[in-house]
C-alpha cells in the first residue's frame, strides 16, 4: 500500500509537468528508483523493510564493519536488481503525462501533497524508506542528547569490595512469574531452570514499578526510583566502567523506536553495544538465540566485564517468540482463542527458559568469579485474573507486575559480607541499581545498601507503582 501510494505521489509530479528543466526530472527519477533499491535490496539481504534503525547502525558502523556487511550481503540478485533499476532510469527519465487540463501544475502539486497526507494519516509513511532515512538520522541525534547523566564519576567514589570478574545481567521482556514452573505454575514451562533450582537464589515477591518498558527499565539500570527528581542520574554502566570493567549491551530489539530511545541512550554508553532486530517488536521473528555468538565471543575475551542482555522474551506476538521445536503446548481446531493465546505464551516462556539456562551454562564453562541476574522488565496478564491478555494502566492486574528475579553464582563468587538470602522479601525493581552494586561488590557513593534485596540491612518500603498507587494495599483490598 505504501509503495503504491508513494508511486502515485511521484506520478503527480510528472503529471503536473511541475519542473521546467530536464535535470530536475532526472534527479526525481533517480531519487525514486533509489528508493526501490533501498527497499528491495534490504528485503533481499535481511528479509526486512528499510527501517530507521538501519540509519543508526550505518552511522555507528566503521569502515571495516561496512566492508564486512557488503561482502556478506551483496549477492547476484542484488547486483542484478541494481542494474535493472539503472536501466529503468534511462527509460523513464523523459516520461511525460500529456493530458490537456487547465491548471495542470496546481493539480499535480495538490495530488502530491494529498498523497503524502494520506500516507501520514494512515501511518503507512512509517514504511517509507526516505521517511526512515530522515527519522533514523534525527532519532540518532535525539538519542545522543535526550538523557543527561552524572558524568562526573570519580574512581575514589567507587568502593570495590570484591575481586569478582564477570557479571551478566539478563533483562527479560513481558514475562510474568505466574506462568513459570519455577514459581509454582502447574505447567512445565521452565524445566531447564528447574534443574538448576538448588544453585539459584530465587526471589518470589518481586514486582515492577510500571507495566511499560520505557517507564520501568531506566529505573532498573540507573539510580532513578519513584522518589527521584532525575536531576542527577547515574547508570550502572557508568559505575562499572569507572571501576575498570569492560561493558557490553546485547539487545534483541531495535536501535531506534518509538518507545526505547532513552533505554538505548543508556545502552550506547557501553564500550560495545549491538542491536539484532530492525522490525518492530510485534512483527519481528528474530529469536533471542541470535545473541549467543556475540555472548560466547565476549566471555572468551580477557579482563573483567559486565554484559547487559535485553531479550525480546515473551513479548506479543507470543507465537513469534519461539521456534517450532518449542511448540509444546499445542492448539487444535477446537481450541478457543483464550486457549490458543495461553498456549502461545507458555511456549514462549518455555523457550525463554532455554535461553536463560544457556546463558548460565555458557558462563559456568569459563570458571570465573561470576554471577548472572535475571529479571523481567514487567509481567503480562494472560487471562490470569481477567478475560483479556496484555497490559494496561487502566485495568491493573497482579500478573502485570509480578516478575521473576533470581541469581546464579559461580562456586567461588565473592558475596558481600552482609549478604542475606530471604526469598520472600517485598521488593520492587526500581532498587535493582543498589542491589547489583551491593551483590557484585562495586558500590558507588549514592548507593544505599538498605535498598539492596541482598543485604541484611534491607528495609521494606511502600511499593508505589504507576507513580502513585500503593501496590500491596491496592491488591489486598481487591482480594478482600
From TrEMBL:
Record-annotated membrane-spanning stretches: 23-46, 71-93, 105-125
Intracellular or extracellular location(s): Cell membrane
One Gene Ontology term from the biological process aspect of the record: lipopolysaccharide core region biosynthetic process
KW Membrane (keyword) present: yes
Matches recorded under Pfam families: Sulfatase
Ranges of residues in domain Sulfatase N-terminal: 167-414
Membrane topology: Multi-pass membrane protein
Gene Ontology molecular function: phosphotransferase activity, phosphate group as acceptor
InterPro entries per record: Alkaline_phosphatase_core_sf (IPR017850), PEA_transf_C (IPR058130), PEA_transferase (IPR040423), Sulfatase_N (IPR000917)
Protein name: Phosphoethanolamine transferase
